Description:
The complex is a heterodimer.
Chain A: H1 2-21, H2 38-44, H3 54-69, H4 73-90, H5 97-115, E1 122-130, E2 141-146, E3 152-156, E4 162-168, E5 172-179, E6 185-192, E7 198-205, E8 211-218, E9 228-234, E10 239-244, E11 250-256, E12 260-268, E13 274-281, E14 287-289, E15 292-293, E16 300-301, E17 317-319, E18 322-326
Parallel strand pairs in A: 1-7, 8-14, 8-15
Antiparallel strand pairs in A: 1-4, 2-3, 2-5, 5-6, 8-11, 9-10, 9-12, 12-13
Helix pairs in contact in A: 2-5, 3-4, 4-5
Chain B: H1 2-24, E1 35-40, E2 48-56, E3 61-72, E4 86-93, E5 96-104, E6 111-112, E7 119-129, E8 137-145, E9 154-158, E10 162-165, E11 170-177, E12 181-187, E13 190-197, E14 203-209, E15 216-221, E16 226-232, E17 239-246, E18 254-260
Antiparallel strand pairs in B: 1-9, 2-8, 3-7, 3-9, 3-10, 4-5, 4-8, 6-7, 11-18, 12-17, 13-16, 13-18, 14-15, 14-17
Amino acid sequence: MIRKNIFLLLFLILASAGASASPGNGLDACEGLVIPFDGLAQMTLDTSVANPPQVQLCHRVANAEKHFRMERAEKSIGELRKYISEVEQSTPRHVEGAYAEALIAEAERVISIISGDVVVEGTISGGVYAFQTNQPVSGALVTVSFSGSEQTYSTTTDGNGFFTLENMPITGAFVVNAADATGAVGSAQGSLLPSESVASVLVTLDHPGSGVIQGHVFNEQAQQTGAVLVTAIFPDSKREYTVIAGVDGYYRFDGVRPDGTVIVIAFDNDSGASASYSTVLTQYYPVATVDLSLVTPGVINSELTNGNFADGLTGWTYSGPVQLVERSLVFGAQN
Amino acid sequence: MKGTSVNHMVLRLVALLAICSSAFTASAEECPVTPAAVISTAGDTNGLGSLSQAFVVPPGYETMSGRVRFLSSEWPTWYGTEYNDTYLVRLTAPGKSLVLASGNVNSSTWTAGVLGFNGKAPEKNFTADLSALVGKTASIQYEVRDVGDLLVDSGLAVDGIKVIRTQQYVPAGGGTLNSNSTISGAFGQGVKLTFKNLNVLGTSIQVADKSPFGETKGVILLPQQSVTFHFSRFGQEPMSWNFDVSTNADAFIVGYSIESTWVQGMPNNPCY
C-alpha cells in the first residue's frame, strides 16, 4: 500500500514537473481526441483546472477514448467515472467549483453517449431547388457522404423538393450531392455534432458547366492527406460545390460553371485544420489546379481574447500588414 | 386645483423616473473606445492578408457576431476584370466549418474609399451560433487575397467580435404565423428567433433581417422540428428590428419565440 502511494506520488510529481517544463508535458494527451471525447479534453485544458490533477485527467480522457476505439465501452466508462471522482476530490482546491460542475456534466454526457442512453444518430433534412428559378425539385436523388467513411446514404426528394435522412452517424461535417432526371446536379455541406444532431441543408441544382477545379490537399508535414472536405465558392454567381478528397488528398470538381473568381476551402473534419485559396475560372481558362496546405492553429487561447482589439493584436495571429485604425473611420455607429 | 395638483404629481413622477433612468443608463462618453483592424494584401509576396484567432469555446458562449468591410484599389479601374480580389471570413472547429462572409471586387457595390484604398464596399454583419461548439477549439479567420496580380491591393476592415452569452438573452415575445409575415420590435444588439413547425407537413422558412446590412437565413423544418436563428447588429440598445419571415411551402404554421439582449424595462445601452 505504501509502495503504491509512493509510485502515485512520484507519478504526480513527474507529471507536474513535466507540465511546467515544456509543451510535451502530458497535457498533449488531451489533444486530437475524437468525438465525443474532444469536448471534455479541451475543457480539461482550461486554466480553471490546476495541475495536478490536469495531466492525470487528460490521461483519463485519452484512455477512455482509446478503450472506446477498441470497442471496450465498459472500460471507457470506467475511466470516465474515475475522471468524475478525481474532479470531485480536487474541487474546490484544484478545480474551480462552477467549472467542476461543467466538467462532470460533460463527462456524464459522454458516458450517456457511450452507454447508448442517448441516441447518437442524427437527422439530415433539406430541400433541393433549381438554381435559376429557385423552384423546388421533386424526385431528385440525394446522397449524403461523410469524410473518412465509404458509407453513403441516399433518398429522393418529395413533391415539395424536401428530403429527410434519419439515423445518420454524428461524425461532424458531411457532403450532400443531389441530381435530377434532367442531369442537373448540385452539392452542399453541413454538419452533425453531438449537441447539434439535426441539420438542414439547401442544395441548388444546375446543369454542369465546362470548368474543372482540381488539386491536392496537404497536411502540415507536406504529405498528401485525404478525407478532407473541399468547398468551392463563386462569390459572383453565389454557386457552391463541395467534394471529399480521396485518401491520397486528390480532389476534383467536374462540370463547374466558370463563373469568375472562385474561393477554394479545404477542411479537415477531425482536427479542424483548414486552408483557402482564390483563383479565376473563366470560359477561356476553364481548368484550375489549386493545391491547399492545411493549417492548424499554433496558439490556442483559453477563450476568445481581445476580440475588440482594445489590447492591440494580443491574442491574434496575422500575416501581411495589419493596421489598427479609429473605428469610426471605417464603420458606422449604427447599422 | 385638484387637477393641477395631480398634474404636478405626474410631472414630479416623470422627472423622478427620468433621473432614475439616467442614473442607471451609461452615457456614450463612458463607452470603451476600441479600434478596428485592417488587414491588407499590400507587400505580401503571396498577396494574402490574414488575421485569425483560435480559442476554446467555454460553457455559456452562445452567439458570436462581427462585421467587416471590404476595401480595394482594384475599383474603379479594374472593376469587372479578372483582377477580382476576394475576402473570406470563416469559423472552423473539429466537425464544423462555416463561411460567415465572402465576396470579391466584382460582386460588391462601391463608394469612395478610405485609408488609401480607392473604394469601400458596404459593411457586412455576420453571426454564428457557438452553442454546439462548447469545449471545442474554434478558429475565426479573416482573409483578403489578391487575384490576378499582386500590384493593386485590397484590404478588409475588421470590427471587434462580440460574444453573447446564453444568460444575456431574455424572452421578448412570440406567437404563431401561418403565412409570410413581418416580426418587428425594439430589441437589443443580439436577437434569437426560434421557430417550431406546428404543421404535419415539412416546410421551408426564410428569415431576412431588413436592416441595411442584415443577414438572411433559411432552413427546411420537419414537422414538430425547431430551429433557432441568431442575428446581431451594431448600435445603441434598444434598436428597431424588422424581420421578414417567408416560405415557399403551401402549408405553413409555425410558432415562434423571440429572445433579445435588451427588452422593455432595461436601461438603454449607448455602447456599440
